[in-house]
Design brief:
About 65% of the residues lie in helices and about 5% in strands. The protein is mainly alpha-helical.
Amino acid sequence: MNSFGNWVKRRRKALDLTQPELAHRVGCSLATIVKIEADQRRPSFQIAALLAEHLEIQAAERDVFIKVARQEKGDDHLETLSSYFDTASLSMPKPAAHTSQSTAFTPKPPQKSTLPIPLTPLIGREHETQTVIQQLQDPACRLLTLTGSGGVGKTRLSLEVAYRTYANFEHGVYFVSLVGTGAAEFIVPAIADGLGFTFSGATELKGQLFNHLKDKQVLLVLDNLEHLLAGVQLLDELLEHAPRLKVLATSREQLNLRAEWLFEVQGLPVSPHIDLHNLEANSAAALFIQRAKHSNINFVPLPEYLPAIAHICQLVEGLPLALELAASWVRVMSMNEIVHEIERSLDFLSTTARDTPQRHRSIRAVFDYSWNLLSLDERRALRWLSVFRGGFTRAAAEQVAGATLPLISALVDKSLVRRSVASTGRYDLHELLRQYAATRLQLDQQEEGEARRRHAEFYLALLGDYQSRLQSQHQREALVRINPETDNIRFAWEEAILNQRLDLLRAAVWSLWYVYELRTYFQEGEMLIKRSVELTRGWLAKLEVGGLGLERTNIQGALGAFLAHQAFFSFRLGRNIESQQLFEESISLLRNLNESTSLAYALGHYGILRSLQGAYEEAVLNTSEAIELSRASRDRWQEALYTTFLGMATDDQGKYDDAFRLFKEALQICRELGDPRLISLAAGYLGQTAHTLGRYDEVPDLLREGLQASAETNDRFGIALAGVRMAMVAQTRGKSLEARRHLKESIQHFREAGDTWFLAHALNFEGKIAFAAGEYEQAEERFREAGKLAFATQAFPMLLDAMLGLATLDTEKGSAERALLLALHIVKNPAGTHDTKQRSKKLRDGLLERLSEAQIATVNMQFQHKSFEALVHEFLLISRQS
């Protein structure tokens, strides 16, 4: 019979995964995977669920797998899994790290990579490839930039090098295209997207990225940096913080950084005489012939064509993009005609042999010629396609640019539009070609304005249309559809602001908010929403002096909605005072308008903010009103969310039966809707309250439901929060080691994400576990860190919990009087949760029995004169100025 560990090992190998690769995907240590496969350890529920996902266990069979992993079922049940029988069919050989054939290319990317799959073999470049690899192998070379003119083949060469060297990098090779990145401040989010790394919380994005990479041995391929030179100093900082990282960059200009090594990529070698039997010695001609055959399957390089082909290679100086474009013309022209037309632009080409700007003009000459061969419809389509950022779908091309499938196909045939390798059904333009087409579009300002208007309307309408899917069981599919459009959405949002399209912004703002919340892109979300707030404030100011005829109530309603969303991101970033002010302004504006949905959003989220600040009565009033407004407008999604929020505030007040009822009611609605985030939230809190009430039989299924919902969309926040709850259950059962394992993984996520509230919550719990084990030094360390985080964000319930932990420690260290003083303040403070107050009363009463009357009198005197804030500074070692 197969043991569980042996089964996991066989399954991993069948999927062509190494132990480090599986550990990286699951998000646990390598040692954990090693011990699991050696049957020395069983995974936690959280890790078991992630193993089921990344070992590709069928959804219907994951419950059996998890139960076997948790020893709730015997190992023999593994034989019932369909995956047990098809592991052999999954086994595929790994790509070779190196091949000496110039035409070799890797058919599938390595597991630890985001490398695009090349559609064609690399022609020539063997010498350049080996030289670049040798440079990268030099320990002193940390940043290597491939420079050269546009279209010279820098990207393709970088991919070849990455494929041949990926085995040398323990934590993977990742490709980051910066083509659609419009400004230097978006370099960090673009790199994170390429790594598959998700930001979260208040910590600076750059710091989160640096922390993610600091111990990893990674090759990072950054493609097309030339338009972002103002921000490339980031790479020097990144290399300093990540000593095992190497960067392979491509740019038309050198980066001028301290760590930079340079390799100039030139055109393919050109020979005046072509030997069909020795094309490796004539790589430029070989590339031309290959692409000509792709363009016209009937093309045969007859001997009489060879002089013309050689001439073409010389005219374009072996530049790969120019050769590919030239070869696309064989469908409609003879070799001599192609030569003749290129010669008409020879002035450009003749001056390109010596420096990059002139070689760039040679690409323009090819574009000019290609443009002149297009029909009027094709020209218009190409001009309009230039408004897209980061690619487009067929539907977008047709609706925005009027580019039908036949038009797109014609442009694909002419190598002017590319099919996306990374995503089926998507297309893009080479960035140089997009810029060229954009200059053509800019010649007619009216046409350009219309194209940009239609682009903004399409993408912001797309966001609005996806709202119902984001709120349902189709959330994962919706995110898959929306995520590739990040650059288009950002561009569309800015265009709508520029043209004061209030209707577009309002229709899209909810989906924009939720997508950025689910992806934990809080800083960028705040930036975009803030721009809309500034716009609407400006409109209202102009209305005061009669400068606009727009209806005041519409603008006020929009401003109120935008302010609420800005307040949410401020709250998620830990700026609670700013968030509170924004929410209050939003609510004040919306109360007098017919804006029930927006008002419910503002009240509901303001309520949870106040609850996390310890203002429970106010939280209950606001969330209750939000629920009533949602019911009146029949918005079940908002009703479910705010009922969950009301349950959280009620639970903190110690009304556990009421909280249980509210969470159960919310979960029922969430299940009907199918939104994984809401299910995860409601099920998790219901499980937590069930545990508090001693309804232990209900807890495992609820926590499992929440975790599975989070895993469905790879919601790292939900998975981490589930880990804290599973730690709570394990600790209650006396399994402190298991509890600590769960907490360790969750704390790591919260720390990396900068999610201060939940980090403080988890640290307080870890401190309690350490205290129970008699590990007082570690407990104090955790309580202090939690308290400092809570103090900085004014999360008073968490602060009081941390201070109570420190007071409890004082009783063990012989400082009973100081502990009593702190306990008296905590009992009095209204921001404490019911649980914190009960524990502080118990501590107080115990100390009153231990201390003498004189000691108690001294403490009472101190209580009258020493404020709680002063005690916080004293216990947490925070200066008064901080």
